[in-house]
Amino acid sequence: MKEFIEEIIFSQEAISQRVKELGAQLTEDYAGKSPLLIGVLKGCFVFLADIARSIDLNCEVRFITASSYGAGTITSGDVKIGMDFDFKITGRDIIIIEDILDSGVTLTALKGFISDRAPASIKICTLLDKPARRKAPLYADYIGFECPDEFVVGYGLDYAENYRNLPYVAILKPEAYS
Ligand code: IMP
Ligand code: MG
18-26+33-147 — its CATH code? Predict the structure, then answer.
């Protein structure tokens, strides 16, 4: 797997440090509240595990899926959203946890879906923000790192379902795509 790594752009140490800072910020901003963390599967799974443990507050963790197709989903624009409906969004302080904000299409749909259910508040926390490729006018409230305009993998992010388990974020060699 590692023979396909071209360059590590965010090291394990840098990510760990930044996640602690974000967690401290969220702990301060949500003091006295019990936020509901909603992770966008599957890319969020590593970031969510780390950020949740760096937030020193009582918080609930739930997951949602967002994709272009799939069974048992609700369509919201071109993005299909799936979730188990055994939790309430109404009146809750929602923090959406994403791996990367790229075109913004996915998160725009998700934010609309959640807003329709009358939360008390809704914020977006993303590990990576790739502003160069934005199609929808959307901003994240909490950002780990600004990502260069490159396809990246690792720390939850995949290429064809691989590389999610790399402990860092990296750019792949062109050979990895062939
Ligand atoms: P958006 O809807 O274009 O903002 O993209 C959302 C999804 O595309 C992310 O949650 C990722 O799953 C995927 N994605 C976008 N850029 C990358 C990347 O550089 N590497 C891996 N996945 C990406
Ligand atoms: Mg993906």
Answer: 3.40.50.2020
